[in-house]
Amino acid sequence: MGAEQRTELEPVWRALANPLRRRILDILADGPCTTGELAERFPEHSRFAVMQHIRVLEAGHLVVHRRMGRKRFNYLNPIPIQEIYHRWVSRYQRPWAEALLALKGELEAEQQSSKTREERGKTGKTRR
Hints:
The protein has 128 residues and is mainly alpha-helical. It has five helices and three strands; from the N terminus they run H-H-E-H-H-E-E-H. Strands 1-3-2 form a three-stranded antiparallel β-sheet.
């Protein structure tokens, strides 16, 4: 991956790094919402704070908006997430997943073996 591609995706990674912004994307995955509707979903945050998060999502091209009268509708744009998936996640998914699953299996087998040895030690039974 070249420096140009990394720079292009930086705003997307920055936008995805925040849990509130990810929750906004989850909501928008179900359909467009006005900024007011989004702000109502997060009463623990001010409307201004929600708007700031939406701007970060727009900078990453994850959210696009359209004005209809006085209302501003926000839409999810999944294309940057697909780009990240194709350039990063799918590239490392298979080898890492297989290595981690093998390690998990070995650790679970070792843990089970240790439990069995401990139980035998408590009861005084030895294996012959």
